[in-house]
Write a structure and sequence with these properties.
Layout lengths: L1 E4 H6 L1 H9 L4 E5 L2 E6 L8 H17 L7 H10 L3
Parallel strand pairs: 1-2
Antiparallel strand pairs: 2-3
Amino acid sequence: MAEIGAFEAKTQFSRLLARVARGETITITRRGKVVALLTPAHPSHDVEAARRTAGRLRKLARKVNLGRFDWDEWKAYRDQGKR
């Protein structure tokens, strides 16, 4: 992780953005103290991929039958670890 002063970051902002776009994280300091991090943005959400995944999960959910959910049984499993 690179570290750069605020004034230098201001004068080289375009270059810093290019480095961040390639995946690098830049620490910006002012008088030796960290004041900001320039980090790559999270990848954009792919709506179509999410729809395909949701469809696969729905198909799987139809195949899997867990039966009736019993709260008392669940609580008993939970409480086993507390003893």
